[in-house]
């Protein structure tokens, strides 16, 4: 009756290209509807780039360029007030600006010592009652001495050395030649040092210069202003006493220094600081031997200059000067004239927001596509769309290829846009490094990421969980990379092997790659950028990364393929793996148990089940003499689930034989858990039978499943449809999977749309989400019927439909069964009775009975129900009447005049019943009476109970 009937025979299974084409076109439609989402995904990197630019702007505005670049001033003013020549340099700069100046010849500065601030200099406290320290009152007058602690193995020698530590002034302070003056005495400052010695902050910020003398001379305090070289200096000179205190040993000094350290409780929470400690060790006439304690934390106060110059040179000079005086008399001197930094180039401060966030941010951006792919894959699995496609013959190969290609395209566009826009806004990571290396790196990475998504998808069955885990992976790997891996990479002592192992996590290898790119492009002044030649640099991790990723890809791809198959079939990977591991152990045990089981049950079935025996004979006969009129033959089909954790094996389907001719609709009734689903799953090739086989159109399900798919249709219990595709597009897709082409395909689609009443009013061109439940169901049926399959499986096709839709659906099924076998499971007796030609009641893994509905009713029903209502006093008469009709009648129900009897059919003639009732009416008053046949429902309950 179908248009393409004639050509059916020649149509083989759809090849790889046909399937790929079908899936490709379907996905194209799907993605076209999904355009907004896709666009959002790919536009994301552009958005980030724009955001970076926008964020950069306020930062640029906030940063005062004059503050963070070398200071300039006009040195030649014209008569009209305009500047003829501006000069930039250290001499025109504030201490903040100097750091950015080009300095060819750095200035010279006197070497100072670091003197504690007046209020924290060491005084006598409760916890430090040690001898020699001044009373705390000196803190009020800010005149506390700068205290030194000294020790040595020869006390007399040490004390004479410490007496010479602070040379006394020989002449009044003369600041015209301050370098010379200050090199002869000890002077210090409590000002915090800078990172470089280009400027001595004490000299330019009107800070106090402490002149350390053997005793305090208040007349030395003065304000001086010196024009030394280019820079005008203003100084606030103060004289303090240098106090050197003898201590017994180095450990005493240690102890005392430690007690002075800022700690709660001691000295009212104040610090008790010493300038330095000297241990002259074994110093003698022949050698100077010293240890010096100095406070290096003092200078670390300033957050933005964590590494500052330490004022140590003068401390050393003090000791050597004292020593030479001790040896040669007070006339001898050892002078430290000045300290001076190295020359440097000029620079400008530019806060690059992206270089602050750089590697971490970019890792996140690149990885963000991962959860998108994962979700997509898990969605098709969760919605069972993948199984549906598989049941219609779609092989894994085309499925993978098309999805891989789609993901690759998506990732590639995403990355290309990111690199292009990143380059446009001038991200150095992109512009500096060789684009060909970047291309190779990103190319490999997106491939690894796609394979990882495939791999991960086989472990999830819920989209929600997959999404959450996907994003946790993205942010977790980024953060761990940024804080842990980064730290390990920079720590040169960290074992390289461990880093390589860590980098096997794709997120980390991505981080490392970006880290290398940014390391190469980070240097503003240098040549910068990674070139191919740089790959051989020993510190460059890029080569390792590339190798790791390629290997990873090659390993993950087949692994993902394998896990995907395993998890699809059973839905439970864990179970499968367990089986795999237990396989060996189980084999020996299960063999025995299961052969017993088979023997026992077979005997039982054969004995009490003549239908199954009969069917078995038919099948045996058909196997010997094949008959093309039979669409499906099951030959002793069996499925055993191996018990887990010590549970016994479960026989889901026990030796099932069944032959269904063309043009028949076979209905399977049965309580839940009877094994119907296992049976259908085996027939549709989702799970392999444990033993036995089935033939569809003469082809074996164990070997020819591909060819069978072309001749098979499936209508699942729940509508497995893509909401955004139209009915027609569904049919096109599944039609192509059935290897229909061109005109044939279009005809088949029109025909099936018409046959399920979806053709008129352009319903076929509407998206499925606008369909009602009944329309979806009819579309599912149409899908199962497209391509003229020889066998169609329908799983509860009318569940959840209103009576009108149900009737429509049934007429579709009735029409469809003309040319094929339909196997239908149902819970609706009405449906079974109307649609099916033969029924099997499936109980406990096998058919309890197989027959057409009427026969079943006759056999298991075999009775009429006779009901009669009279007044109470006539009950006895009614009972007598019934016994006259049927001597073995049973009263099954009785309440206040209403009685129900079960009458054996063979004893009763309906005419007799009427006759008797008519005559009884004359004798007493009958309120109501009735005679009903048994329903299929009664049969079903009886049979199921009997099990
Ligand atoms: C300590 O040094 C003084 C002065 O140099 C020297 O005379 C004396 O012998 C030394 N004492 C010891 C125990 O070495
Ligand atoms: C070193 O200097 C810091 C900063 O002034 C101070 O808090 C700390 O107590 C000093 N340490 C000692 C041992 O004096």
From TrEMBL:
GO terms for molecular function: ABC-type transporter activity; ATP binding; ATP hydrolysis activity; lipid transporter activity. It comes from the Eukaryota. Gene3D superfamilies: P-loop containing nucleotide triphosphate hydrolases. It is found in: Membrane. The chain crosses the membrane at residues 356-379, 400-427, 439-461, 468-489, 545-568. PROSITE patterns: ABC_TRANSPORTER_1, ABC_TRANSPORTER_2. SUPFAM superfamilies: P-loop containing nucleoside triphosphate hydrolases (SSF52540). Its main location: membrane. Keywords: ATP-binding, Membrane, Nucleotide-binding, Transmembrane, Transmembrane helix. InterPro entries: AAA+_ATPase (IPR003593), ABC_transporter-like_ATP-bd (IPR003439), ABC_transporter-like_CS (IPR017871), ABCA (IPR026082), P-loop_NTPase (IPR027417). SMART domains: AAA (SM00382). One of its GO terms (cellular component) is membrane. Belongs to the ABC transporter superfamily. ABCA family. CPR flippase (TC 3.A.1.211) subfamily. This is ABC transporter domain-containing protein. It comes from Aegilops tauschii subsp. strangulata.
């Amino acid at each position: 009756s179908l248009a393409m009937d004639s050509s059916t025979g020649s149509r083989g299974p759809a090849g790889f290209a046909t399937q790929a084409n079908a899936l490709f076109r379907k996905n194209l439609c799907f993605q076209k509807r999904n355009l907004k989402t896709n666009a959002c995904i790919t536009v994301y990197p552009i958005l980030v780039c724009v955001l970076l630019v926008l964020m950069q702007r306020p930062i640029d505005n906030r940063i005062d360029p004059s503050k963070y670049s070398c200071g300039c001033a006009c040195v030649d003013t014209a008569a009209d007030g305009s500047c003829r020549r501006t000069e930039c340099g250290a001499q025109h700069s504030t201490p903040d600006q100097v750091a950015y100046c080009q300095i060819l010849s750095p200035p010279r500065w006197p070497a100072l010592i670091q003197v504690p601030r007046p209020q924290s200099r060491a005084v006598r406290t409760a916890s430090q009652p040690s001898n020699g320290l001044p009373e705390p009152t000196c803190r009020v007058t800010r005149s506390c001495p700068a205290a030194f602690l000294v020790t040595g193995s020869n006390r007399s020698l040490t004390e004479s050395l410490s007496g010479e530590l602070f040379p006394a002034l020989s002449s009044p302070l003369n600041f015209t030649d301050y370098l010379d003056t200050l090199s002869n005495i000890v002077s210090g400052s409590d000002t915090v040092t800078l990172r470089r010695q280009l400027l001595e902050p004490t000299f330019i910020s009107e800070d106090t210069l402490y002149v350390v003398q053997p005793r305090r001379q208040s007349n030395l305090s003065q304000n001086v202003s010196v024009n030394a070289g280019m820079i005008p200096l203003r100084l606030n000179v103060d004289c303090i006493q240098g106090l050197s205190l003898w201590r017994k040993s180095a450990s005493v000094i240690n102890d005392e220094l430690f007690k002075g350290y800022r700690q709660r409780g001691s000295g009212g929470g104040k610090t008790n600081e010493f300038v330095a400690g000297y241990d002259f060790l074994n110093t003698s006439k022949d050698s100077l031997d010293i240890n010096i304690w100095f406070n290096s934390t003092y200078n670390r106060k300033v957050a933005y200059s964590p590494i500052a110059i330490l004022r140590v040179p003068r401390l050393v000079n003090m000791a050597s000067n004292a020593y030479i005086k001790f040896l040669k008399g007070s006339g001898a001197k050892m002078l430290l004239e000045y300290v001076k930094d190295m020359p440097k180039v000029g620079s400008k401060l530019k806060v690059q927001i992206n270089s602050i966030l750089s590697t971490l941010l970019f890792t996140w951006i690149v990885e963000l596509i991962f959860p998108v792919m994962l979700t997509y894959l898990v969605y098709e699995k969760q919605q069972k769309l993948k199984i549906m496609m598989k049941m219609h013959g779609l092989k894994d190969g085309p499925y993978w290829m098309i999805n891989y290609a789609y993901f690759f395209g998506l990732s590639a566009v995403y990355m290309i846009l990111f690199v292009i826009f990143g380059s446009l806004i001038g991200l150095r990571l992109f512009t500096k490094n060789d684009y060909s290396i970047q291309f190779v790196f990103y190319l490999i990475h997106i491939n690894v990421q796609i394979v990882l998504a495939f791999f991960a998808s086989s472990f999830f069955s819920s989209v929600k969980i997959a999404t959450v885990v996907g994003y946790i992976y993205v942010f977790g790997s980024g953060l761990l990379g940024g804080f842990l891996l980064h730290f390990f990479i920079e720590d040169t002592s960290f074992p390289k092997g461990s880093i390589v192992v860590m980098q096997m996590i794709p997120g980390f290898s991505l981080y490392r790659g970006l880290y290398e790119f940014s390391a190469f492009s980070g240097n503003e002044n240098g040549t910068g950028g990674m070139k191919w030649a740089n790959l051989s640099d020993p510190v460059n991790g890029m080569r390792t990364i590339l190798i790791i990723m390629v290997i990873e890809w090659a390993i993950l791809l087949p692994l993902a393929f394998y896990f995907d198959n395993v998890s699809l079939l059973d839905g439970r990977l864990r179970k499968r793996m367990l089986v795999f591991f237990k396989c060996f152990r189980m084999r020996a045990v299960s063999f025995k148990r299961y052969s017993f089981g088979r023997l026992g049950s077979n005997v039982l079935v054969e004995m009490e089940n003549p239908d199954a025996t009969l069917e078995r004979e038919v099948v045996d006969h058909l196997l010997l003499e094949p008959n093309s009129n039979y669409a499906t033959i099951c030959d002793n089909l069996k499925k055993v689930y191996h018990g887990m954790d010590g549970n016994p094996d479960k026989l889901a389907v026990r030796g099932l034989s069944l032959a269904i001719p063309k043009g028949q609709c076979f209905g399977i009734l049965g309580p839940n858990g009877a094994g119907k689903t296992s049976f259908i799953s085996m027939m549709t090739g989702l799970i392999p039978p444990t033993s036995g086989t089935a033939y569809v159109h003469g082809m074996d399900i164990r070997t020819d499943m591909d060819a069978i798919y072309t001749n098979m249709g499936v209508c699942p219990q729940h509508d497995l449809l893509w909401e955004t595709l139209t009915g027609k597009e569904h049919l096109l897709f599944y039609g192509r999977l059935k290897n229909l082409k061109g005109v044939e395909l279009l005809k088949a689609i029109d025909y099936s749309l018409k046959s399920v009443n979806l053709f008129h009013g352009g319903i076929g061109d509407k998206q499925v989400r606008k369909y009602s439940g009944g329309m979806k169901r009819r579309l599912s049926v149409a899908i199962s019927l497209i391509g003229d399959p020889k066998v169609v499986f329908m799983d509860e096709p009318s569940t959840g439909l209103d009576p009108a839709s149900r009737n429509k659906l049934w007429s579709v099924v009735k029409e469809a069964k003309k040319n094929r076998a339909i196997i239908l499971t149902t819970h609706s007796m009405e449906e079974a009775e109307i649609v099916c030609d033969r029924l099997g009641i499936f109980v406990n893994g096998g058919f309890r009975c197989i027959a057409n509905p009427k026969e079943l009713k006759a056999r298991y029903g075999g009775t009429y129900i006779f009901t009669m209502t009279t007044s109470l006093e006539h009950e006895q008469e009614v009972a007598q009447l019934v016994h006259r009709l049927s001597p073995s009648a049973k009263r099954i129900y009785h309440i206040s005049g209403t009685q129900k009897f079960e009458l054996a059919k063979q004893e009763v003639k309906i005419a007799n019943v009427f006759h008797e009732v008519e005559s009884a009416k004359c004798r007493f008053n009958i309120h109501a009476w009735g005679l009903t046949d048994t329903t299929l429902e009664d049969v079903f309950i009886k049979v199921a109970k009997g099990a």
